[in-house]
Write a structure and sequence with these properties.
By secondary structure, the chain is α/β, with parallel strands linked by helices. It has a single domain, classed as Thiamin diphosphate (ThDP)-binding fold, Pyr/PP domains (Rossmann fold). It is built from 12 helices and 7 strands. Strands 1-2-3-7-6 form a 5-stranded parallel beta sheet, with helices on both faces. Helix 1 runs antiparallel to helix 10, helix 1 crosses helix 11 and helix 2 packs parallel to helix 8. The termini are far apart. The relative contact order is 0.16.
């Protein structure tokens, strides 16, 4: 897919939507308006935007506990996401899933997942479905560096490789599995090297460079669509916040944090767009204003939406225990 003004401006728009959404979620959480845990994607926007710019609406993505950015980049509606975070009935999962379980199958968003590494197995199921139906769709599986130590990672890559499934495995390596640095939870420096064990190409890319992520993903998506099988892409990036909101992040050296903040992907991409005449400063400002307006509308929608009725507590739940309760 060739880079042009439309694609790059869309990527910038999505990156700003992610950043604004996360900043707003951070504030609402601090104000006690968002229940449960919150894991923010701030600082990793170039990965989601660069990857999803290569996808069609009928392509699939599988997300993680840090999934807001993936969902926004794939076309998720901000107001339904915000309502879900606030536990409102109008949210994507009727307010019952919260931050870590947002899905919109109509847009190919197969769902975020609070279980570390669980999305890897789901992506194999999606890839097998594509292969069985004979379409040229692609499934992107996002996961973190910590997930690459899970059994699901190795099982998923093995099966995807054997069956040549149309999956792009995207490892968002932010350097930490929760509070443990990569150097302490694995001996390999590049997770992409692990693809070789399963006959899968492994590529390392600067995850804070939206163009590099876009170009690398374009090759992997093309490979998947033509039936040549999966690719493992490792995006080296960094989360600006702690593992979760409330995590002070004292395990990260101050100099390291400062160095990564200086490589913030959004101003970096904005500079690229202006340097190469793809967007002017005025156009970038207009996009920023558009995003601000969208966020305000999403907050109003979410705050004015009702909570789910108590009598709906056992709806949308699939369990023999629930069925037994209903019978009684």
């Amino acid at each position: 897919m060739e880079l042009n003004r439309d694609i790059t401006s869309t990527m910038y728009l999505r990156m700003q939507r992610i950043r604004a959404f996360e900043n707003t979620a951070m504030t609402l959480f601090a104000d006690g308006k968002i229940p449960g845990a919150l894991h923010l994607y701030t600082g990793e926007e170039a990965v989601a935007a660069g990857v999803c710019a290569n996808l069609r609406e009928d392509d699939y993505i599988v997300s993680t506990h840090r999934g807001h950015g993936h969902i926004v980049a794939k076309g998720g509606e901000l107001k339904y996401m915000m309502a879900e975070l606030l536990g409102k009935e109008t949210g994507y999962c009727n307010g019952k899933g919260g931050s870590m379980h947002i899905a919109d199958v109509s847009k190919g968003i197969l769902g975020a997942n609070g279980i570390v590494g669980a999305g890897l197995s789901i992506s194999v199921g999606a890839g097998l479905s594509i292969s069985y139906r004979g379409t040229d769709q692609v499934c992107v599986c996002f996961f973190g560096d910590g997930s690459s130590n899970q059994g699901t990672f190795h099982e998923a890559l093995n099966m995807a490789g054997i069956w040549k499934l149309p999956i792009v495995f995207v490892c968002e390596n932010n350097g930490y599995g929760a509070s443990m640095s990569q150097a302490k939870h694995m001996l390999v420096r590049d997770i992409a090297d692990r693809g070789a064990a399963y006959g899968i190409p492994g590529v390392v890319v600067d995850g804070n460079d939206a163009i590099a992520v876009y170009n690398t993903t374009a090759e992997a998506v093309t490979r998947a669509r033509r039936g040549d099988g999966p690719t493992l892409i490792e995006c080296k990036t960094y989360r600006h916040r702690g593992q979760f909101e409330g995590d002070p992040g004292i395990y990260r050296p101050a100099a390291e944090v400062e160095a990564w903040l200086a490589k913030d992907p959004i101003p970096r991409f904005a500079g690229f767009l202006q340097e190469f005449g793809l967007l002017s400063a005025q156009e970038i400002e207009a996009i920023d204003q558009q995003v601000a307006d969208e966020i305000r509308e999403a907050i109003v929608f979410a705050e004015q939406s009702p909570y789910p009725a108590v009598e709906k507590i056992v709806e949308d739940i699939y369990s023999d225990i629930i069925e037994e309760v209903r019978v009684r």
